[in-house]
Amino acid sequence: MTKLTLWNNTDLDLVSRGLMKPEDVRTETVEALVDTGATQLVLPMDLCQRLGVSWLKPLAVRLADGKPQEVPHAGSIRISILGREMECDALVMPAGTKPLIGQVQLEVLDLIVDARSREVRANPANPDGPVLYILAAA
Fold it and tell me: Checking DSSP bridges between strand 27-34 and strand 2-8, what pairing results, if any?
């Protein structure tokens, strides 16, 4: 399990513009399962409701058992894992579902999963922070 801190990113934007007090930002810290088979962050509905996230168009997904399903889609979430932060969306499952950290978050935050210990770690090639790779096109 990995410590995952989440904030309502719209609240953070309001704080940066002086329209909200920092202590009023909705935030939660939870234990999440890293699922290298999952593409995207998955959060339970009750957590999303407490955070007051924005709701986006529902998305079609394929569950681990192969079953297709349409699920709610939440946006404007800021997350932190091991002190590395990003803004992202989340797929939303029923209340009580275990939060899942997916491949997108691992890639953007430049995190790796140690196969032996099953622990999430910062990429040792980039210990000071995430490094993203892009193709420079002329």
Answer: antiparallel
Alpha helices for 61-119 (secondary structure H): 103-108
Residue among 57, 122, 113 at smallest CA distance from 84: 122
93-134, pLDDT tens digit by residue? 999 999 999 999 999 999 999 888 878 999 999 999 998 888
Question: Could you tell me which residues are beta bridge partners of residue 121?
Answer: 112
Q: Could you tell me the domains of the chain? A: 2-122 (2.40.70.10)
- Which residues are registered as beta bridge partners of 7? 27, 78
Alpha-carbon distance of 101 to 41, in angstroms, equals: 5
Per-residue pLDDT tens over the stretch 27-37: 999 999 998 88
Backbone angles phi, psi at 71, to 5 degrees: -130, 155
14's CB contacts (< 8 A; 6+ apart) are 20
Q: What is the signed CA dihedral for 116, 3, 87, 76, rounded to 10 degrees?
A: 130
Angstrom distance (rounded) from CA 112 to CA 103? 10
User: Two tokens at 26?
Assistant: 């909705």
What are the structure tokens assigned to 114, written together?
A: 């140690």
pTM of the model as a whole: 0.91
